[in-house]
């Protein structure tokens, strides 16, 4: 099965984002995964709307905004205007999930829903007909460089069974070339990798290596 590669910019060198993006885009990465953290829903702060808006001019990749923020409904329009193509909110966030997913679609964007490792799949099922992508976190949202939590594999398999073969199931956190087979065999097709790509010697080669793996 062929995977969609979504390098996470969180692990990039923030002093030269333009160059970093160029490396993964030229290597064929389809999505640019943008981890937005507010220090409230998750215990860390990353970057936000103005950074995404500036990067939009530099890349044709699908901008995949992973919003780890409280009250995401307040900011959806701004992220859409900044150039996000897919906007993913957390089921743990305090917005009305139905209304926020509708809002994302009303702005012509794709909607994703994310589950932290301890959130049961049943929490996402009511929204399956309103989402374009399910994000199953394989680490607790908040930091790059964590270890893949094997317990999420059953959740991935069950999601794949329920959503069918063509639905986009994204897995995020602790994925490297050596364990890529784990989420992919379980049923994931959109792979986020931060440390494994931007933390490596050669980000472009890392993307090519991920994309060359057949499982
Ligand atoms: C964690 C973020 C991830 C993270 C992945 O909160 O959502 O996207 O950057 O980083 P690695 O691949 O380093 O685990
Ligand atoms: Zn992420």
Strand content: 15-25%
| Helix proportion range | 25-40%
Query: Helix count?
Result: 8
Bound molecules: D-xylitol-5-phosphate, zinc ion
Which architecture would the CATH scheme give at its second level? Answer: Alpha-Beta Barrel
For the record, give the distance between the C-alpha atoms at the N and C termini, rounded to a whole number.
6 Å
For the largest beta sheet, what order do the strands appear in spatially? 1-8-7-6-5-4-3-2
- Corresponding CATH superfamily: Aldolase class I
**H and E order:** EHEHEHEHEEHEHEHH
Query: What fold name goes in the CATH topology slot?
Result: TIM Barrel
Largest beta-sheet details:
8 strands, parallel
Shape: globular
Whole-number mean pLDDT: 98
Secondary structure layout plus pairing:
Elements: E1 4-7, H1 17-26, E2 31-37, H2 49-56, E3 62-68, H3 76-82, E4 86-90, H4 97-106, E5 110-115, E6 133-137, H5 153-163, E7 168-172, H6 181-186, E8 190-193, H7 195-198, H8 203-212
Parallel strand pairs: 1-8, 2-3, 3-4, 4-5, 5-6, 6-7, 7-8
Bound molecules: D-xylitol-5-phosphate and zinc ion (ZN).
Notable characteristics:
8 helices, alpha/beta, TIM Barrel, 215 residues, binds zinc ion, binds D-xylitol-5-phosphate
